[in-house]
Amino acid sequence: MTTIRAATAADLETIFDIINDSARAYKGVIPEAAWHEPYMPIDHLQSEIAKGVRFYCCDLDGRTMGVMGIQDVLDVTLVRHAYVRTESRSQGIGRALLDSVTRLTPRPVLIGAWRAASWAIQFYQKNGFTLLDEAEKNRVLRTYWTISDFQVEQSVVLADRRWLARAA
């Protein structure tokens, strides 16, 4: 049975493990300058939580198999740090998490991803998100994220129907 629940402080190590297990898919795909081991050190994860990222866990038969964070920034909600254990991909875990966290907010939802992570981009598009054009992506990244110019260049942004309706 699959359940989605809010993460607690007791989930920190599990979230860390899932992020770093799943992020191995980026190695050799994203720019080398962006890859490091571990992909997300524990102190960075703690910093993200301190900055308001709220994590949700997907448990399957009592074991946490995926995590996804959301963060309210200005007038939108960002999906942050969405990862599924390598062994559990393509089993509906990411979709269950995405459906759940997007229902938690009435705000428009934006998702940033590495441009080279084609599987992630395709996943979000398959689940109703639209890729923003380059100019809008650059504006949105500089408005809602705090990232380097290098990361802006290497990233894409996808938006939900609420963002698109507001922008129309």
Strand and helix layout:
Elements: E1 2-6, H1 12-22, H2 42-50, E2 54-60, E3 63-73, E4 76-84, H3 93-103, E5 109-114, H4 118-126, E6 130-131, H5 134-144, H6 149-153, E7 155-159, H7 161-167
Walk me through this protein's architecture.
- The protein has 168 residues and is α+β, with helices and mostly antiparallel strands.
- It has a single domain (2-167), classed as Aminopeptidase.
- Helix content is 38%, strand content 27%.
- It has helices at residues 12-22, 42-50, 93-103, 118-126, 134-144, 149-153, 161-167, and strands at residues 2-6, 54-60, 63-73, 76-84, 109-114, 130-131, 155-159.
- It has a seven-stranded mixed sheet, sandwiched between helices.
- Strand 3 (63-73) and strand 4 form a beta hairpin.
- It is globular and about 45 Å long.
- The model has no long low-confidence stretch (mean pLDDT 94).
